[in-house]
Model the fold of this input.
Amino acid sequence: MRLAEIKQNIKNQLISSYDTVELNSLLPLFIEHVTGWNQVQQVIHLQDEIKPSWEKSFQEGVVQLLQNKPFQYITGKAWFLGNEYFVNESVLIPRPETEELVEWIHEYAQIVNKPLQIADIGTGSGCIAIALSLLLSEAKVTGIDVSDKALKVAQKNASTLHANVSWVQQDILMSASLPEKYDIIVSNPPYIPLREKENMENQVTQYEPAIALFVSNEDPFIFYKMIARLGKQALNKNGQLFFEIHYDQATALMNLLDEMNYHAELRQDMFGKDRMIRASLKK
Ligand SMILES: C[S@@+](CC[C@H](N)C(=O)[O-])C[C@H]1O[C@@H](n2cnc3c(N)ncnc32)[C@H](O)[C@@H]1O
Done:
């Protein structure tokens, strides 16, 4: 079968499940994933016969896409701040709003202008910890996660991207302390109350790890509370907490941090949604 035919064939199979814009951006990436041909090469090879093994890979990929599997889990690749990360179903797919959190920390680090000790709690793919270590060459960064499978992914990413990060397996909800003292503790913890699950896209709830997403309806701030509590001992003088938050939880979370003796600042993401908090202990 020629590439042009297979391309049409894939389109026909996916058109009822994906909208045209999504499909048109997905298709060249899918073809590149299977053939290794970039977009220019795909045009050059359009009328070429493709290998039977590629036909098989295309068909397997289509089946997975029809089952709503996120494209990043099919290819095993996700982009974060210009770098390619390996991902599998043990880790959350890094999101663009998390890139903005890292950019905020980078901005802050440039103002402080000294080597920083940083902990990333709930590191998942390691994207926050690794990006910070690459951006701040003098920083000492530690990534913490309860999941050993996630930590394996994070370690693999650090090795591929030549990032110098230490990894610690620790259940933050069962911890009386953190491994060291830090200038920055960053976390994008699980923060979606379970009751929201039924309204979420099947693509997320079926494939992304529940342990990375959900918290109980009764105690949705459990991770923030715990980290803020641990931060009282583990933050160096002028130390900062940086959190990614649920856009709907900003006011309640700001109040909670205030009650816990933190001065907190809120930031919006590129869509104008309340998405990030920076907090430091009141003087
Ligand atoms: C929302 S994901 C964030 C992943 C990554 N930092 C990112 O921003 O893409 C939350 C992470 O917290 C981890 N996690 C969940 N419960 C935890 C716990 N009790 N202690 C430590 N990490 C936990 C999950 O394994 C998951 O990797």
Observations:
- The chain has two domains: 3-67, 79-281.
- The pocket of S-adenosylmethionine is lined by residues 91-92, 94, 98, 122-125, 127-128, 145-147, 150, 171-173, 188-190, 211-212 (CB under 6 Å).
